[in-house]
Amino acid sequence: MEDIIRLKSISEAHKLLGLPKPKHPLVSVVELNDRIINFDYGEAKFLFDFHQVNLKRGFSGTMMYGRNSYDFDDGSLTFIKAGQVIKMEKLPKEVKETSGWTLLFHSDLIRKAELGKSIENYSFFEYDINEALHLSEREIDSLNMLVEKIQEEYNQNIDKHSQELIIANIEMLLKYSKRFYDRQFFTRTNLNKDILLEFNKVLKSYYNSENPIQNGVLTVKMCAKQLNLSVNYLGDLLKTETGRSAKDHINDYVIEKAKTKLLGSNESVREVAYGLGFEYPQGLNKLFKAKVGMSPSQYRNMN
Q1: Domain 4-187 sits in CATH 3.40.47.10
Q2: Please, what is the angle between helix 246-264 and helix 231-242, to 10°?
């Protein structure tokens, strides 16, 4: 079993990287340089008790981020949520980052603030690295201004307003990031349509096989794995492109398959439910009533 190193505080992160103690115990901005970028974390995995936002600029060489021609090349933004276990890997030799920053903020900083509740709405904290946000120079400038304000607050004498202002700027940074992700979804519309087609192929392939009987009802997680995407990124992409969640797409497909079987075969409702991956017919009954307004039996008898 691989070792997991837990970093409970920002001070511990600074110590690991050989940095001076942070000016504020719950928030810090680490400026990226060659030493930080090429730091050797070894083979261990890390569990962080704090959130991270990472801006990386000045790439040379090929970035294996699945990007297309619509993306900006000026910088990329990635997010790590508190409580995630990740392996920190050194960059390949052909990739060089010349600048950037990492914003660290502990869960305790925002716990009593509104951001402590709303941070769950920023789904990009659970995106994969290949789903990074790619920024224009203007977008980078907007984020840099907010990071500088955060630094200004914890570098001066901390007063009763400091924490409120730091949190406000972090929240603003996350709101801008959400806006920029929406821009990225929009500019990637052709690529997104390809993913939507692949998603529909996954649905058809799954339900035209024995998989439902063997593995149960198709889940968003199973679809995301097939498409090499994170669950949140797939959900947000589908929501942007279609206005409906990934779960809605799956449920609608299951309902259409159920309708076809109910009217086109002599299978009992139990057999239809089992064939669609439901362990018990009650599962299909509940979904069918929610989507169609009546039970499978009532639907069959009406037609």
Answers
A1: no
A2: 80
